[in-house]
Predict the 3D structure of the following.
Amino acid sequence: MDGVKAYCLVELSSPNAELRVLEVFYHKIYKIFPLQEKIENINDQYWTLRAEEIPEEEKNIGPNDRLIHVYHFMKDINQTQQIQNFGDPFFLLIHEGETLAEVKKRIQSKLQVSADEFSKWKFAFISMNRPDYLQDSDVISTRFQRREVYGAWEQYLGMEHTDTAPKRAYTVNQNRHSLEKPVKIYN
């Protein structure tokens, strides 16, 4: 990417690993920057830029596969119909016919959550900020019919659970994921 230099904090899976730069706001992914796009004039007081390795499975997406947004959420205790996102959002490749039970196994492995803690989590298809709770036997791909990833943050797979991150005073870009690569922007 022109004008961007990434500094890796962790080892990449290979020297030729591909990276993508994401724009995250309020714990949702709003943009994936195309490789040729210059990143200029972004006010990082509000937006967080995150560089991450593109998983190998995402490089060979089949015609019926979908790349979906996955976000952590809690119900807002002050408003019965509102939800509050938190934590680090991510993408997940789902395959045609794959059930929630199969997807949950991959998510648990990806996030390295204990079985005891993970058993307390609820999963929902979220559209227009309203959760529609899912059963383990539900086929996930039937909920995510749209193909594009860009602008798809209004529909996502939500993981309802308690935010166990330590509480601290708000600082800019406080929600950094331990495996992400910081991005330095040069004009």
Notes: The chain is about 10% helix and 35% strand. The chain has one domain: 4-185. The chain has a mean pLDDT of 78. Residues 25 and 144 are 22 Å apart (CA to CA).
